[in-house]
Amino acid sequence: MKFICKENWKEVLWKYVLIVLIAIMFNFYYLWNVINIQLVNKSFISMAVKTRVLNPPISKFIWVVLGTEIYWNNNDGIFINIINNTPFILYLLLYLLGIAGIILYMLNLKRKKEGQDLFQLVLISFSLLILLFYILGYLPENYQILFFKHVYLLDRYMVFFLFVIICFFTYLLSNMKNNIPWRRFFYVTFIILAFLELFRSVYFVKDNLAMFDISQDSKAIEEVWHWVNKNVNKDEGRVVYQETYYCFPIDHPLNKSHVMTLSAMKTGVPQFINTSASEDVNFFLRYFLMLNHFIFGRPIDEISDTKLYNLMRIFNAHYIVSCEEELKSKLEGSSLFILKFSSPPFTIFEIKDKEKISWTEFSYNEIEYNILKWTDSNIVLKINNSFTDNQMLLKVLWHPYWKAYIDGNEISIGRNQFGMIMVDLPDKKDMTFELRYSSFNPVTVTVNLLSFLVFFIYLVVLFYRKLSTAPGKRVSKKL
């Protein structure tokens, strides 16, 4: 609205066409994933399982600001290289201009420029507040799927940073008062790049889905899910799935697919799948260059079958699904794993003595307990504890939305080094332990209310300014 008040209709049109195209580009990454998931679900209609797809986030965050890498192949022409690097070029220009807009805004604020709009300052403060809440762990996502790490969710939280960048990008353009040709040059450049990225993404999605439809591996995945659904008890334990991402040739439709994350949804059996997890500085380089395949965030050639077996016990995982030959060969040559099913390239193995592991562990093993209820959002146990200072490890991923109760009284929840829930048990017989998951969180509700309030106040102030500056209509100062 601010731009409409200050600029002619052509400038407004250029600006909002640009903003719409940028929004489409940022959302398209998630949009095509949602389309992909929907089509994959339809291809597995024989499962007869009703699926639920989460709404995609508003925007996509670039992992490291200005950490854009442009890949230039001298064997290709200039136009082909530009097409292939369109999103990287767009992100790089957007961040550079956005940061330049922040610097310009700070300089104008320091000079106390008249008529300075504080909306940008509100955006900065609000975004920093959101980041603070994220760092403190109050704004988590729960997909009801156990992941080894949550680094991959970072882009969901950092969407506010993109809002700031886009806001200051438009602020920079609007302050080029004496450089209208330059302003139009940036508009046209970004519009062309956004259109190229849009058409490139559409082509990529279409080509990817077409390859998936004719891939025999889609039938193999369905057979794996059928077997798990038929042979694995939901209350028994988890199934570990090796991530398909970058486990196939680069032109394979599953090479950049997270299709195995649908497994719990398709089978009803809790799952474990690692996307990326390591403190090793060389991890991501090795991961993306496909120098090693991974399981539990570790290179397969660096993890022994004994270590893998112990990790399975830690997470109460009874089965493991391999999607490539390296892991399959390691498990076939181990006495700790039993081959149960194969539908190339996927293979299912069962760990030896699986009946000796369970969802719970206690500091003192002489504990009697029964599982009264076990669902995704509610767990109820009947426990007899005759020891003091006894701790119970519940092999469920900690989350601030989980609340624990003993005989109806809320107790505190701790975490072990793997992020599993730990609680201190009182010396008491025949007690009822309950774990409830509730998505209601006062902090997130407060943040949502504050954001709505800030937006509402901004609209009121903007409307008041428009009325007070309208010709012949001046609002009294009492208003």
Topology:
Layout: H1 2-6, H2 9-43, H3 78-84, H4 86-110, H5 119-135, E1 146-147, H6 154-157, H7 159-174, H8 180-213, H9 217-231, E2 238-241, H10 263-267, E3 271-273, H11 283-288, E4 294-295, E5 298-299, H12 305-314, E6 317-322, H13 325-332, E7 337-343, E8 346-351, E9 360-362, E10 368-374, E11 378-384, E12 390-397, E13 402-406, E14 409-411, E15 414-415, E16 420-425, E17 431-437, H14 442-469
Helix pairs in contact: 2-8, 4-7, 4-8, 5-7, 5-14
Task: Describe it.
- By secondary structure, the protein is α+β, with helices and mostly antiparallel strands.
- It has 4 domains: 2-214, no CATH class; 217-353, Rossmann fold; 360-437, Immunoglobulin-like (Sandwich), CATH 2.60.40; 442-479, no CATH class.
- It is built from 14 helices and 17 strands.
- It has helices at residues 2-6, 9-43, 78-84, 86-110, 119-135, 154-157, 159-174, 180-213, 217-231, 263-267, 283-288, 305-314, 325-332, 442-469, and strands spanning 146-147, 238-241, 271-273, 294-295, 298-299, 317-322, 337-343, 346-351, 360-362, 368-374, 378-384, 390-397, 402-406, 409-411, 414-415, 420-425, 431-437.
- The strands form 4 sheets. A 6-stranded mixed sheet has the order 1-3-2-6-8-7. A 5-stranded antiparallel sheet has the order 10-11-17-13-14, with no helix packed on it. It has a 4-stranded antiparallel sheet with strand order 9-12-16-15, with no helix packed on it.
- α4 (86-110) runs antiparallel to α8 (180-213) and α5 (119-135) runs antiparallel to α7.
- The chain is flat, with a radius of gyration of 27 Å.
- Residues 1-5, 28-68, 134-157, 275-292 and 475-479 have low confidence and may be disordered.
